[in-house]
Specification:
Layout: H1 2-28, H2 45-50, H3 52-55, E1 59-72, E2 75-81, E3 86-92, H4 93-96, H5 98-106, E4 112-121, E5 127-138, H6 154-159, H7 161-167, H8 169-191, E6 195-196, E7 202-203, E8 215-218, E9 223-227, H9 232-240, E10 245-253, E11 265-274, H10 278-297, E12 301-304, E13 307-310, E14 316-319, H11 320-328, H12 338-347, H13 358-369, E15 378-381, E16 393-394, E17 397-401, E18 403-408, E19 411-418, H14 423-438, H15 449-457, E20 462-468, H16 469-477
Helix pairs in contact: 7-8, 8-10, 8-16, 9-15, 11-13, 12-13
């Protein structure tokens, strides 16, 4: 086995050596492809195929990566892959000239070519381009994976996404859809009068979520900073300033583990709307998801794995207490103390921490018994105050807050609030978070004095929501892991995989 591997490495090294020798020969003959700075493309592959009747016999110019070549004496075929797909090129010596044809025969799979020629159909009916000129635009000095087997090793696919995009068309389509998801969100929100803004990534106080931040040092100021864990506190400052509808789509960073649904840096969209509440956010979420699904997939029915989710119907709305009663058979309206809640958890053999209160136990019941059942779109409303430090209390029941989480496929897809705008109440919540920090909770928030000052200036009643864009893309593309929808997912450095 070791001898076979050594021979394979020697074969590869020889092929790489030949490619560099071909480049050196081209350069010596004044044909260095890397000196070319521009090539004017008139059409892409699918443009030609979809508009063949209008383009037959017309001159077109295409460019892309050569994925296949078959030399047959005085004429050859190759296949060029571009953004949209691929198209066959017919290359004849008499059409491009003897010298150019000699050069073409030496080109390798992976080289990037520019082709000018006429659109036609071969005898077998395949739409093709009959080349009148072939230009080498970039010489590939590396070998692509063998096409029949493709690039299948997931670790290599994630580390070398550029190769993955070349070899796996469905991967390219996923990221084209991802771009369309984001542009569709912008299109919808802009039409609703929202303004897109940008807020800092480097912050002295990372707040707005329960998460452990990454830390860094700013040399110029000789000061430690953190990478933001949410967008919330700065966007609320803008609501205070009179920007009534704002949103931001940006990267946030949480110093936590990796799994199929979590990456330490991910794309979050948060929006805030003055003069509305969490019911307004539910309406917006329902309409936004329908719109994006229709724009990206062409339907309001989404299939993910074995589940089909219907976004065309009104989304179900349940309080957390109602959901736990429905799926766990426990009515927390009948539980009046933390001691009773912990006793119930003990009976169900559920683990909890000493610091947990009744609301925390309710949430544990929800996570244990309810989440897996939330396949169809559903809003889970009215969370306990213990797990919602930045949210407005329900006036009729201050143990709970005006918050919802949006679920599909058993996943949390969005988190929304009637935002807390009482600065005195907010200070008390921060003080409670500080006590948790002192007790060792690394995900608790520090007091943000400037944010408190903004609330003292006055913030109107406001609805706010955060969407996990990566999970939304997973749902719209039937991707099984978050890394499949991140162009460059976080990976352990090469050489440290087993450490």
């Amino acid at each position: 086995m070791a001898e076979q591997k050594k021979m394979q490495e020697q074969d590869v090294n020889q092929l790489l050596k030949v490619r560099r020798e071909k480049l050196a020969e081209l350069q010596q003959n004044g044909k260095d492809p890397f000196r070319i700075t521009k090539f004017d493309v008139t059409h892409h592959s699918m443009d030609i195929k979809e508009n063949y009747d209008a383009l037959e016999g017309q001159a077109v110019t295409v460019a892309g990566r050569m994925m296949f070549k078959r030399v047959m004496g005085k004429a050859s075929f190759c296949n060029i892959q571009d953004l949209q797909g691929n198209i066959q090129i017919y290359v004849a010596r008499d059409s491009i000239g003897e010298d150019s044809y000699k050069d073409f025969k030496k080109y390798d799979v992976g080289d990037i070519l520019g082709i000018t020629g006429e659109v036609f159909k071969t005898k077998t009916g395949e739409i093709s381009v009959h080349a009148s000129s072939v230009t080498l635009l970039s010489k590939s000095l590396q070998i692509l994976p063998e096409k029949f087997h493709g690039l299948t090793d997931t670790d290599t696919r994630y580390r070398q996404r550029y190769v993955d995009l070349i070899m796996n068309q469905e991967v390219k389509e996923t990221f084209i859809k991802r771009s369309k998801v984001i542009s569709s969100i912008r299109k919808y929100l802009d039409a609703q009068g929202f303004m897109e803004v940008e807020t800092p990534m480097l912050v002295s106080n990372a707040g707005g979520a329960a998460a452990r931040p990454f830390e860094t040092h700013f040399n110029a100021l000789n000061e430690d900073f953190k990478l933001r864990i949410s967008l919330e506190l700065y966007l609320k400052r803008l609501i205070v300033g009179g920007l009534e509808r704002v949103y931001e789509i940006g990267r946030v960073f949480r110093n936590e583990g990796l799994d199929t649904r979590h990456n330490p840096e991910f794309t979050l969209m948060e929006l805030y709307q003055a003069y509305t509440d969490y019911h307004g956010m539910m309406d917006l979420t329902e309409n936004l998801y329908r719109y994006v699904a229709k724009e990206v997939t062409g339907s309001e029915i989404i299939t993910y794995g074995e589940h089909t989710m219907d976004l065309s119907k009104p989304f179900e709305r349940l309080t957390m207490v109602e959901a736990v009663k429905k799926y766990a058979g426990v009515d927390f309206n009948e539980i009046h103390s933390t001691e009773e809640a912990k006793k119930l958890a003990d009976e169900r053999h559920m683990e909890y921490e000493d610091r947990h209160q009744k609301g925390d136990i309710l949430n544990l019941f929800f996570e244990e018994y309810v989440e897996e059942h939330l396949i169809q779109p559903v809003f889970i409303m009215d969370h306990p105050i213990e797990i919602s430090p930045l949210t407005k209390k329900k006036p009729e029941n201050p143990e709970y807050v005006e918050r919802f989480e949006f679920f599909m496929n058993g996943w949390e897809m969005a988190n929304a609030y009637s935002e807390l705008n009482d600065p005195i109440d907010q200070r008390e919540r921060f003080e409670a978070q500080e006590r948790l920090l002192a007790a060792g909770d690394e995900e608790a928030n520090h007091t943000d004095e400037d944010f408190l000052n903004a609330l003292c200036i006055g913030m109107p009643p406001t609805g706010g929501i955060g969407f996990g864009i990566d999970r939304m893309v997973m749902m719209m593309t039937n991707a099984q892991a978050i890394r499949d929808v991140l162009l460059c997912p976080t990976m352990k450095s090469l050489g440290k995989e087993n450490q």
